[in-house]
Specification:
alpha+beta, six-stranded mixed β-sheet, four-stranded antiparallel β-sheet, 10 strands, 14% strand
């Protein structure tokens, strides 16, 4: 009987709990494809959109190799891989999860001010925030922040702490690209008021103030992709507070002023705001 290595033992436990796993080699990267699958020779199995190993005996196709099958995890090719592996990874999307990968202290601070609390796992430099619900994976949605879900993998670094909560709109919004702006004929456009003035039912006034201040800072500190940054910032604010009735004309004007300080026109600010509201169905 093949002796269990510590990593394979962890992998089998996770697989038994329904988490599709795979080994990572030195460098914390997936094992390379076997010679039968190299250079897409097998016909593109690396484009699979669900978990499950290739039919070859090797540990192939990165995230798509992730499996819960104990026979596969204990097969000769996989046992050899586990002996060389440095850590266990998993495919979040196949388990119905999304990992917000926060790569540094600044990203963690942003998450604590912006995202709903959920299960967190400490990493070498930051944290993983894990939510119920899958979405598409995206890198660099903002400085120090990646989204790992479908067609991606994340390192398993322990069970974490806290109660896992549902994937919020504010995370989904990070992956939304700005649609083409609607360009009406030039005219005087007032700041589009939200039905505001109310008290946010699920956050404190301090949370709202910090959120607006951080949104202003995110816009004014942007070095590139100003249009996209403005739109994503508006989207994030509306995702959190757009349905609460707590946004006032003053809050919206502050965001518009920050955007205009980076060269945006009042018309583009209005377009971006309206596009964000349309995207969220507000």
């Amino acid at each position: 009987m093949t002796q269990l290595t510590p990593l394979r033992r962890v992998a089998l436990d996770l697989a038994a709990a329904g988490l599709p796993v795979l080994p990572l080699r030195p460098g914390k990267a997936p094992f390379g494809n076997c010679h039968l699958c190299a250079n897409n020779a097998c016909g593109g199995r690396s484009n699979m959109k669900t978990a499950g190993p290739c039919q070859c005996p090797g540990v192939c196709h990165a995230w798509a190799a992730a499996t819960t099958d104990p026979d596969v995890l204990s097969s000769p090719a996989w046992v050899a891989a586990w002996r060389r592996a440095v850590c266990v990874a998993y495919h979040p999307g196949a388990a119905g999860l999304t990992v917000v990968d926060l790569d540094d202290a600044a990203a963690v601070a942003w998450a604590r001010e912006t995202l709903p609390a959920t299960r967190t796992v400490e990493t070498t430099r930051g944290e993983h925030w894990i939510y119920w619900g899958a979405m598409s994976s995206h890198n660099a949605v903002r400085p120090g922040v990646d989204i790992k879900s479908t067609m991606s993998y994340a390192r398993y670094l322990g069970p974490g702490t806290g109660t896992m909560t549902a994937l919020p709109d504010v995370v989904r919004a990070l992956a939304v690209k700005e649609p083409p702006a609607v360009r009406p004929a030039p005219r005087s456009v007032p700041v589009p008021a939200q039905s505001g003035g109310g008290q946010c039912p699920h956050r404190t006034p301090v949370f709202l103030e910090r959120g607006i201040a951080m949104a202003e800072q995110r816009i004014t500190q942007a070095r590139s992709a100003i249009h996209a940054t403005v739109y994503r910032t508006f989207l994030a604010v509306l995702s959190t507070h757009g349905r609460c009735g707590c946004l006032t004309d003053t809050h919206i004007a502050r965001l518009f002023t920050a955007a205009q300080s980076k060269g945006e026109t009042p018309r583009h600010c209005t377009d971006a705001w309206n596009n964000a509201r349309t995207t969220l169905g507000l």
